Amino acid sequence: MKKTLTRKINLPRLLILGCGDVGMRLLPLLRGRFRVFAVTSRPERRDELRALGAVPLLADLDRPATLRRLAGLADYIVHLAPPQADGALDRRTRHLSAILPERARLVYVSTSGVYGDCGGAWIDETRTPAPHNARARRRVDAEQVLRAWAVRARGRLAILRVPGIYGAERLPLKRLQAGTPALREADDVYTNHIHADDLAAIVARALWRGAPNRVYHASDDSELKMGAYFDAVADAHGLARPPRLPREQLRQVVTPALLSFMSESRRLRNGRLKNELGVRLRYPTVAATLAACVKMVS
């Protein structure tokens, strides 16, 4: 027991911020390679985090004073926390950047929404961000803040731009059950996906193999429009397919936030993910994912 504890203490330290669903999937992949510290603002989550081998730390990215104890704690950092829900800047990432150590290795999970609408074009990581909404603008701000830290502190930063995350527990079943309409084929947009388990594995890969200040698309191989995705989920779960409407009619029956989500079309190339990080996707397409999800819940 004493030898096991000594080995664990001597492992390199890793700090996770934003340890939600993807973070919980990531923890088993890190066991035995790091001594993991997981930040939570909710005391009731401490036992859950301990059960997966992490040391829970109470802190809040919205309260900078609570982050002081994290300064210099770990040389490896995974930043999964989303920005706050308002403003043009990501205040949470700015608070975090103030306590990041020099020469640390950091993986930041961003969003493919930073590109805005690309008219359905295939894009790679050299595409200039052009965010269309405040959520995506906050993500661009976070990327810029972390890039500045990496240059200033000689840190090693990998940015993962992530599309829609899904899995057995992350499918739009409530939306389908509610009969929320989708766009007709002529108006529909291309959407991109990644299975939550694959994303956790990509984060782990980026920790070890990510090039300095490099962006990667954490996306699967699917080439799919949004309506076709909803149809596939409905078919797999024996639900009615959503009705299809022209964009102008849809505008009258869905929220502005949902309409914004349905107004951006792009297809992400993932060559860097495979060639540089050496990722082999467990769920390379939506069809493979849905088949696995149905099997898991049946």
From TrEMBL:
This is Nucleoside-diphosphate-sugar epimerase. Residues 104-248 form the RmlD-like substrate binding domain. GO terms for molecular function: aldehyde dehydrogenase (NAD+) activity. It comes from the Bacteria. GO terms for cellular component: cytoplasm. Transmembrane segments: none annotated. Pfam families: RmlD_sub_bind (PF04321).
